[in-house]
Request: fold
Amino acid sequence: MISVKKLKRTFGPIVAVDEISFDVGKGEVLGFLGPNGAGKSTAMKMLACFLTPDSGTATICGHDIIIDPVQARQSMGYLAEHAPAYGEMTVNSFLNFICDARQIRGGARREAIERVVEKCAIKTVFHQTIDTLSKGFTRRVGLAQAIIHDPAVLILDEPTDGLDPNQKYEVRQLIGDMAKDKCIVISTHILDEAEAICSRAIIIARGKILVDDTPAALTKQHGCSLEEVFRKMTKKSA
Reply:
């Protein structure tokens, strides 16, 4: 569902993403792991068609992000690291605005909003303005807009950022449930989270992929926790 081929992006002299390639299929949850500045968010923004690559490309459900970005966007849901939202809008009006953008109308709109309100547990704040929400609820509203059109592909940048332990557990459960028939890429700094919900892990540093394997295989191969594997790999590349 996602195929990445030699994707590269620079910012002046800084190579943020350095010709990375990987594929992610249906039913997989890929954990995109790396230290700050490793290139994770830049790579995800390119996949989501928010940044244009300097070279290379990727396809989302067969749609090229450069040649056919509209179809690629329609096939995916994207939660940015600092997901923008309109603070003066209520959660209700914001989700209806997203439905307008996604061309979800009539009964399908009602069903979509009811589904994400329940899945993301935002019923209690449904009529509040977004600028009155806690960081955790704001994050859950961001997740709701990402899944409202039931996309085949999800790209989630730090989806549990700002959530309390109970909320983190609920979002992990939600991702696990959705993974059965979707292709999901998440970035996270929480290594035990990656072990809990990811079927694969890519560790990236200085824009390059250092390793691509299952969390279980990595811990077995290195004889230590995923967190220790992460430290070993990223220190070598520093």
